[in-house]
Amino acid sequence: MVPGKTTLPMMPLGRGARRKNSQLPRRSRRQPAETGRRFLDLRSGEVDIKHPKVRHETVLPVRAPNLTMQYPQVQINHHYARLWTGHDFYPQFPSFATCSKELKECSGHVFVDSVPEFCLPETELIDLSTVDVILISNYHCMMALPYITEHTGFTGTVYATEPTVQIGRLLMEELVNFIERVPKAQSASLWKNKDIQRLLPSPLKDAVEVSTWRRCYTMQEVNSALSKIQLVGYSQKIELFGAVQVTPLSSGYALGSSNWIIQSHYEKVSYVSGSSLLTTHPQPMDQTSLKNSDVLVLTGLTQIPTANPDGMVGEFCSNLALTVRNGGNVLVPCYPSGVIYDLLECLYQYIDSAGLSSIPFYFISPVANSSLEFSQIFAEWLCHNKQSKVYLPEPPFPHAELIQTNKLKHYPSIHGDFSNDFRQPCVVFTGHPSLRFGDVVHFMELWGKSSLNTVIFTEPDFSYLEALAPYQPLAMKCIYCPIDTRLNFIQVSKLLKEVQPLHVVCPEQYTQPPPAQSHRMDLMIDCQPPPMSYRRAEVLALPFKRRYEKIEIMPELADSLVPMEIKPGISLATVSAVLHTKDNKHVLQPPPRPAQPTSGKKRKRVSDDVPDCQVLKPLLSGSIPVEQFVQTLEKHGFSDIKVEDTAKGHIVLLQEAETLIQIEEDSTHIICDNDEMLRVRLRDLVLKFLQKF
Amino acid sequence: MGAGQDVGRSCILVSIAGKNVMLDCGMHMGFNDDRRFPDFSYITQNGRLTDFLDCVIISHFHLDHCGALPYFSEMVGYDGPIYMTHPTQAICPILLEDYRKIAVDKKGEANFFTSQMIKDCMKKVVAVHLHQTVQVDDELEIKAYYAGHVLGAAMFQIKVGSESVVYTGDYNMTPDRHLGAAWVDKCRPSLLISESTYATTIRDSKRCRERDFLKKVHETVERGGKVLIPVFALGRAQELCILLETFWERMNLKVPIYFSTGLTEKANHYYKLFITWTNQKIRKTFVQRNMFEFKHIKAFDRAFADNPGPMVVFATPGMLHAGQSLQIFRKWAGNEKNMVIMPGYCVQGTVGHKILSGQRKLEMEGRQVLEVKMQVEYMSFSAHADAKGIMQLVGQAEPDSVLLVHGEAKKMEFLRQKIEQEFRVSCYMPANGETVTLPTSPSIPVGISLGLLKREMAQGLLPEAKKLRLLHGTLIMKDSSFRLVSSEQALKELGLAEHQLRFTCRVHLQDTRKEQEMALRVYSHLKSTLQGHCVQHLPDGSVTVESILIQAAAHSEDPGTKVLLVSWTYQDEELGSFLTALLKKGLPQTPS
């Protein structure tokens, strides 16, 4: 047994639970507040790096609902940490002298002005130093890893696929790089005072565990965290302490994204998070291996259940073309990996027919080059179409050609080469999609004043209204085309029909329609039996009872077993064996031969002769037919046998031997003088009529 | 069927727990007749191969491991799954096509497989990831391990139940300039099938060999000679290219290096796209600089061979048995200033093998005799494990037995003895067509009820239970499910009642004391005699030893005799009969 062994699959937070406030109604525009922005004149090639590129930072917590699964031998925790969007403030804003420096108002919204901070996964509930294993589902789900591996006493192993680790590293590297460029030296902390926070407008007032929010990790911590990851491949069976086996399966959502099977020999739990049934670039989702699950934990569904990703891509392209044709620029705030590959592929097919071949596409990120290069080397993790390209051999993604033909250019930042090459109108892909830091801030400031320009939101993690709030008022067009390829509720019910788990476990939000669309009964999980739901910091007992464990019978022992057929098709064999247990593996070995009696040599103490009562005799079953028994007795030389009937059976009297045998349906009692020979003879005759177990 | 005490046409049939798996399907470079392909009639005399074989596994793309595949699947006929890694699947058809072209177009062979057959054959391929457990059917599973050697080379574990075989293919235990080292976990297979190309060699350090190689190349070009390096398009070639490229860069040399046409660029492209299969260093730096984009190495044109002045040419194939390398060799062989460096193993019968064994007059096609005046050098760059590496792998995997293939009989014999000595496992080296049968004694997995297991484990944890404890239970075999439960549970499940068998023996003792006193004496006697047993004196006057009940009673007729009634169940028989015997001896006289 391994008490306290714990496994932590990681999944995104923002992605795991549906955002409560993602359906915010559009608010009326307020009068601009003078904020003294600095513009960067990129056209002139001058970039003033001394001035802050980031303004009015909203604190960005990483929210972490936590799910603890009790698996009898192994405790499994699903943590998900994910960048969480900043909150809007309602305009009725009282002034607080104590922290007025931290709070800024813009267009009637109030923001905390601080270096960005992140909310960690729930750490109060469990002692992370007792966690043995963390399973990572995809590269979006590992952003909090350095906090756990570096500062909690965690000493276990982290499992992830190679693309997950490589691209996860890029995402972290970008984040660290962006945050390092934020010039604010101080974190705002005064507003976190409980007495003050409670007086703040609603969303801020409700922010959880603000005191645990932390500043971004360093690259050193990232490297150290990543060095603790053990690389695994799809369908690889990983033994944990001999007690459970975990297996990653393709989840179809991102390069290297995985669902996990956690199973013992008799129980199977599937952890399904961030999965997609759509055909994009990753390997398709492996559904068959999820079958026969006792419990299926389902999370990481789409944030935007009502939007069709295909339609959104179409809208994205047409809006982009429209803007550029009118001489405007297009800004696409995005992560440096993932959907961007699909967008570039669509544009590759689209630009010539839309007459956009002369428009430059810029991809600006400290990891832009690495991301584009890495995408080309994970052939084995790609969908079939892309895989077969590699066999030709051609790069699997067409962005290689876009780069070769100079249509797509990538830069580590807006400084240096970019300022020389920059031409307008153009299309810029850059981060961070929250619009709170990164090069995207420059472009918002540069292009926000002109209605010719358009910003197109494709990442579903952040509410675009919240993201835009500190930039208001904006003349720039805003298009919301969230592309979220993860499962929607129709696909979920299809999946569950296909996979048929005995029980479904999911976050509470999935068991009811979204608050803003309470009439949409189709926007929730519908299955039989109804799903078990959990919420943040809740411990849930999974509904299965372990009854069996695997044990191996050594061949020598197996040879010695004598099975007998009790009922048609059912055979029994009694087993007496020595149990050996090592590393949670159980083996039965044949019992040692009884030592040869060393008779005569030495007088031993009486107690040495005491038989080992641990030699167990089998149980008996059956009943004894009196007439046949008497006949048998006679055959074996007993005479003068008398049979008396009793209320429950019979008494057989062997008068000569002064012996009495009580026979009832379920018992036999032999009462005799102390004559061992006689007793053993009678015993053997009785046993002839009984079955041993 | 191949590679038995020989190098070439690797092909091994493994029957394991009722499953039949064919490992590799290679051709032999030394032959041009029937012996070139394995004899598939060994597999089955009658009936289709598809019915007999559960799957085919190809370890890597070298032709001596996959060269007969289209012949096997399309001409002999096999429609089942063929497993190989992604890079192997990508590169294999190209080498097969190349091979076909040489055989058909240049040598004019008829009845050879066609391009279409190669394509059809590749459609039967299922690509596997490293470490992925592929379920071929409900019982048979295979798993690939990294083997080094060439891009995409893998070792395969074939497993049915608790029996397993590991087939190494060709492997390399030391990382080189572009690939990593082979690795296998401690999977304890029933059998390890290992290649043994370098069964007796323990190679000096790679660095020395590299220095030697560079020195020789450098000296030759310095004196204006031409260097020919016959290689296979993929594998060693890339390693040597990286080596020369860096050397040229460092020494600022201007002498041209060429790589024979065709595969070069394509090959390098494969390396680029499958960079995850190369070694750590290349993988780490590929974003900044792709090691497979060469500056100094240019494509070769046939006309260049007659150019004056020094040059270095990598030409295919590696054993000088056909193609461009042989053509260039014939042109340059007459000049003692030139040099040919053989960086890999050469199969018997090839020109490469002949010149390496010292032959200097070669009979070519059409009775021509070619005199070899150029210098011939051999540099072991082929990425096979040497004796040390093979021993290392055996140590890693901890197999029950070892079988050697892909090597020469004499060398194998030496290694066989060494393995048997060092690891105390049996080691085999069958010739082609020979069958080795290994008895295995698999243990039988059954389900044990958790209640029974926990009960036993709890008792096993008690400190006084140092003696071996016996677990007693009942194995229920129903259909194919085996469950071990406690006897009580078995009875319950089958709806049977327990039949209790009880014995009561009368022990007559001469004693005039009262029954109660008698019982007390029995108690103290047993208590002192049977240490380690639970002896109790109950309020009703009876004595128990574990579950055995002893009562004292007066004799109905003789007041001077007391009767001890000892009663026990069948399950406690030993102790019961021991007690009666003990009591029969009488009770010790108490002092006072």
TrEMBL record, chain A:
Subcellular location: Cytoplasm; Nucleus
Superkingdom assignment: Eukaryota
Keyword field: Cytoplasm, Nucleus
Stretches assigned to the Beta-Casp domain: 340-468
Region of interest called Disordered, as start-end residue ranges on this chain: 1-36, 583-609
Cytoplasm is among the record's keywords: yes
GO cellular component annotations of the record: cytosol; INTAC complex; integrator complex
Biased composition (Basic residues): 16-30
A biological-process GO annotation: regulation of cellular response to growth factor stimulus
Role, per record: Component of the integrator complex, a multiprotein complex that terminates RNA polymerase II (Pol II) transcription in the promoter-proximal region of genes.
Record-stated family: Belongs to the metallo-beta-lactamase superfamily. RNA-metabolizing metallo-beta-lactamase-like family. INTS9 subfamily.
Summary of subunit composition and partner proteins: Component of the Integrator complex, composed of core subunits INTS1, INTS2, INTS3, INTS4, INTS5, INTS6, INTS7, INTS8, INTS9/RC74, INTS10, INTS11/CPSF3L, INTS12, INTS13, INTS14 and INTS15. The core complex associates with protein phosphatase 2A subunits PPP2CA and PPP2R1A, to form the Integrator-PP2A (INTAC) complex. INTS9 is part of the RNA endonuclease subcomplex, composed of INTS4, INTS9, INTS11 and inositol hexakisphosphate (InsP6). Interacts with WDR73; interaction is required for the assembly of the RNA endonuclease subcomplex in the cytoplasm.
PANTHER family to which the protein is assigned, alphabetical: INTEGRATOR COMPLEX SUBUNIT 9
Protein name: Integrator complex subunit 9
UniProtKB/TrEMBL annotation, chain B:
Family annotation (SMART domains): Beta-Casp, Lactamase_B
A matching Pfam family: Beta-Casp
Gene Ontology MF term list: hydrolase activity; metal ion binding; RNA endonuclease activity
Signal peptide, first to last residue: none
Annotated keywords: Cytoplasm, Hydrolase, Metal-binding, Nucleus, Zinc
Obligatory cofactor(s): Zn(2+)
Any one of the GO CC terms: integrator complex
GO biological process entries: RNA polymerase II transcription initiation surveillance; snRNA processing
Coiled coil: none
InterPro entries: Beta_Casp, INTS11-like_MBL-fold, IntS11_C, MBL, Metallo-B-lactamas, RibonucZ/Hydroxyglut_hydro, RMMBL
Domain Metallo-beta-lactamase intervals: 8-202
Domain of life: Eukaryota
Localization in the cell: Cytoplasm; Nucleus
Segments forming domain Beta-Casp: 237-355
Family: Belongs to the metallo-beta-lactamase superfamily. RNA-metabolizing metallo-beta-lactamase-like family. INTS11 subfamily.
Subunit structure as annotated in this protein's UniProt entry: Component of the Integrator complex, composed of core subunits INTS1, INTS2, INTS3, INTS4, INTS5, INTS6, INTS7, INTS8, INTS9/RC74, INTS10, INTS11/CPSF3L, INTS12, INTS13, INTS14 and INTS15. The core complex associates with protein phosphatase 2A subunits PPP2CA and PPP2R1A, to form the Integrator-PP2A (INTAC) complex. INTS11 is part of the RNA endonuclease subcomplex, composed of INTS4, INTS9, INTS11 and inositol hexakisphosphate (InsP6). Interacts with WDR73; interaction is required for the assembly of the RNA endonuclease subcomplex in the cytoplasm.
Name of the protein in question: Integrator complex subunit 11
